[in-house]
Please model this.
Amino acid sequence: MSTTLKRVHGYLAEFDNVQDLYHAAEHVRDAGYSRWDVHTPFPVHGMDTAMGNPRSILPKLVFCGGITGTTVAFILQTVTQTNFWGQTLGLKFVEDIVETYPTVVQAKPIDIWTLPAFFPVMFELTILFSAFTTLFGLLALMGLPRWNHPLFTSKRFAKFSDDGFFVCIEARDPKFSQDGTKALLEKAGGKNVELVEDEI
Amino acid sequence: MEASASNTPRILEREPLVLNNRSYSWITNRICGIVENKQPALWWILFIPSVLLSGVMAFCFVYLISTGVGVWGQKQPVAWAWDITNFVFWIGIGHAGTLISAILFLTRQKWRTSVNRAAEAMTIFAVMCAGLFPAFHVGRVWMVWFLAPIPNANAIWQNFKSPLLWDVFAVSTYFSVSAVFWYLGLVPDLATLRDRCRPGLKKFFYGLFAIGWRGGNRHWSHYETAYMLLAALSTPLVLSVHSVVSFDFATSIVPGWHTTIFPPYFVAGAIFGGFAMVLTLMIPVRRIYGLDDLLTPKHVDNMAKIILLTGTIVGYAYCMELFMAYYSANPYEAAAFTLRGLTGPSTWAYALMFSFNVFAPQLFWYRPFRHNMVVVMFVCMCVNMGMWYERYVIIATTLERHMTPGSWGEYSATWVDQWTFIGTFGFFMMLFLLFLRFLPVIAIGEVKGVLPQSDPHFDDRGEKGIQEEDLMLYADRHVPKAASA
Model:
């Protein structure tokens, strides 16, 4: 007999197709659960509504990332190529921090009015910073990378990346009950309802 | 019922994106099978020469470093020749991948799902090939880090007003963002491969890169937002990259280069050449790996139409260049184009460019040609060559005859030029074949997502969902069923 301590992670129910899963999600949402999720091999359109999920805040993060990129490019170019910070704004310490040897080429001015020549790099860095904010912001919002998860102990769950459709209601949910949750999932059409346990 | 059928306007039936009504697990098995099973003999037949050619490329670069950049054929007045031609050629190829993954995503073109993964891989590998040329063109390649804006001992910063530096930023951003986009798209499919592996080294590595993906909708929700954001970022990016590449020429005062048409002309040309390369790669892949149900004639047809459209834009640009050379009444501009097309030393290149890029794609006006893989491959090969000649014509032949006759010269490529270029094809093919071997060539999750049964409201039309018979009301080519009911 195993002596490993186990903790209940939640109930996992399987559904035959997207349509059943969609209606089941509406049932679970209406029953007032909050700590649950559906697991699908592809994103199901409208599932956010069926689950009552809020809109992702990722675009706001990316906007900040993009603005940072524009600013970085503006500062980088104006500090190293123009007299904007030291002479126009009178911030002499900027010239002390960044040592420059101005190269005047192509007869382009060295004051701030050479700005249009800086647009391409400002644009590119905006995109670059936004893209990396998207990547790392996404990982942060998803809480990944996370290689182990209690759900992976379920043999049946591996089908989620092929053609399986699952609903998992976690035990952390305040409305979770051993019988009630199972009954709800079965009533919603869930098959093979199983208790997923986490080794601790 | 019948009366209304005759009154309703006729709509054309939409061709299914996946043929033969394939199931989710069939798609998983077929695509993962490519990675999991032994590769066909043809894979090895292509892979071994590709590795050898990569070695030739490496040898050529080592020879160039150890001897000097003079082993390439360029000398005054032709200081930019094959190397910059090859750079623009390869970077242009990449653009089709981003167009498919980003622009077609934003415009909701669902057919993109079958080709976007391979096209994005092509983008990344093509940009890798492209980056090699300017890096070695600088001459002292060990000083290439001077391109990066980091403080150095001489307090000399990059010239941010130069289009060449814009290019450094554009191309490196393009590579980074394409790689992020590609990897993000791969995560769910890597999870599929992970879940199918037996425990072992393979499962470890697929699992490592699948970052513990478990397909939760709370994840998908953020993931789809991220995917759309990256598409929205890549769209202006891809247009900017080739515009910036064209600035290398357009901001100069060389007759034949100094034109405002260059940015849109270069972008259209890049997409044109890129789609030809996508088809050159994907038509053999669908045949060899039995992906005919996923990559259907419909996909080839759509891409052929894009080639026709962008090829026509390119043809318009060629003609407009000639017209402006005449209409601007600028004798230098007129001389540049007369020498390029009629009297110069490289008119043969101009003729090849024009026939490959403008005349060959006109075959695609005719539908049976778009559905004949031999014809499609033939046109794509023409376009692949034609687009290389376009860059050669713009770069080398212009420099052969610019400004005063005293500074005219002839250009001929050396064996190092030639073998370096051929070597990059080996490098590109090697990377693409490794991609076929280790990663899913078609985005499994995305293809499943566009199947009709993936719509949560698929069953609202009764038990069987929206069947083909339901569309019959609108299409007069079907035999009516309502009569028997």
Chain A has a mean pLDDT of 87. Chain A touches chain B through 73 residues (CB under 8 Å). The radius of gyration of chain A is 27 Å.
